[in-house]
Design goal:
about 200 residues; alpha/beta; 6-stranded mixed beta sheet; globular; binds guanosine-5'-triphosphate; hydrolase; Ras-related_GTPase
Amino acid sequence: MPGPEYPRSSENMVLIWGAADTGKSAFVQRACYDVFPPELDPFDGEGDRKLAVVDGESRALWIFCVSNMAATGMVESFIRRSDMFVLAYSVGSDDSFFQMNRAYYLIRELRGLWADEHVPIIIIGNKCDLPSKRRALPGGRRRGYGSSSHEDVRVVSYEEGACLAEQLGCPFFETSAKENINAGGPAERDEKKVV
Ligand SMILES: Nc1nc2c(ncn2[C@@H]2O[C@H](COP(=O)(O)OP(=O)(O)OP(=O)(O)O)[C@@H](O)[C@H]2O)c(=O)[nH]1
């Protein structure tokens, strides 16, 4: 398998990071080509390009996806190089939602964000087209970390996503690569925060 491609010097690098099956590849395909293939090859190690108009200025984005299953060294290398981050979860997976915290704090740690450096991080809850039908658990409990695989129904509400994003100080969007909801805009809006 070829090694990862790298962005050109004129491009802003956007790292999309999330659990497996959150729809990262589908989101990029929708954002860059306005298509929704039913099945996609794993996207790790590949980048894609999108032109975005930011404050009236055309900018080139190089968009790169990694899942949290990727090799630690590769993830850290791309975290250090990226200009902005999109942390993705699926509204159909509690597990992917809980894993975002780890991604968020790793970015902050590696980029020294406890100091003054500002790096834009946005959060997207993909698959918002899934129907809302929360499964009842015995005793009314909520599932916890590691307890959920991906579902065909929504298990993370909009409010839960918005609340976490607010706590972390990140812009938040629910998206659907499938139904083309907010799937072309977040990177452009995020870019606005950079400049
Ligand atoms: N309902 C729905 N399904 C989606 C959406 N986006 C992606 N999917 C489906 O979710 C599955 C995973 O999509 P991928 O784009 O391969 O997910 P990924 O996060 O890149 O997965 P990895 O390569 O394993 O990291 C596929 O079956 C997609 O068709 C969406 O917006 N809505």
